[in-house]
Design a protein that fits this description.
alpha/beta; 18% strand; 5 helices; 195 residues; Rossmann fold
């Protein structure tokens, strides 16, 4: 019997029921419907220290990051998953601090496996205030994701993002919610998403 594909959802909002979390949950629903097993990590509740630029992870024969905190469990989950969902609200014109901390610590990820980013499929979910993804800073974050994940050989399958201020308000955007669920399915079943 074929083992289920694994999808890791990384929630980068301080609100477990916030708008970016709702988008990620909807992507996860699509992935589950397509047969994936989903694990969700709420970054805000974890101890994740900033990278201290010690380069221990880059030395030959390194056993990984020198900082022993909750990232150790996240590295394991990242390795086990074929796909990741990265969810963040826009805070001060880019991604949240929670996501940025996690991304900075991804510097050590290659110490845990050979070419661990190569072939990983990624879905991005973002929410922002205002009406424009450009002047809100959402596009800044999306470009950062595109540059970073492309550089390390991962593939962004699709991105869903929309305007919402009040918690849960994103649900009112029916077209976006549909796109999010379809993205979850594409994350598991296809190489790319047109959303």
């Amino acid at each position: 019997m074929k083992e289920d594909k694994k999808v890791l959802v990384l929630l980068g909002s301080p609100r477990k029921k916030g708008n970016s979390a709702i988008l990620a949950e909807t992507i996860a629903k699509g992935a589950k419907t397509a047969g994936a097993k989903v694990e969700t990590v709420f970054l805000h509740g974890l101890t994740i220290a900033p990278c201290k630029s010690c380069y221990t992870c880059q030395k030959p024969g390194s056993k990984g990051c020198s900082i022993k905190d909750d990232m150790q469990d996240i590295y394991r989950a990242m390795l086990e998953a074929e796909a990741w969902v990265i969810a963040s609200p826009v805070y001060w014109f880019t991604m949240s601090a929670q996501i940025k901390l996690w991304m900075d610590r991804c510097f050590a990820f290659p110490a845990y496996a050979k070419d661990p980013f190569t072939g990983k499929k990624i879905a991005i979910a973002m929410s922002y205030g205002g009406n424009d993804p450009f002047d809100s800073g959402c596009i800044n974050a999306l470009r950062t994701f595109q540059d970073a994940w492309g550089y390390v050989g991962a593939k962004i399958v699709g991105m869903v993002y929309g305007s919402a201020m009040g918690a849960g308000e994103i649900r009112l955007n029916g077209a976006l919610m549909k796109d999010a669920e379809e993205l979850g399915s594409c994350l598991v079943t296809t190489a790319s998403h047109k959303g």
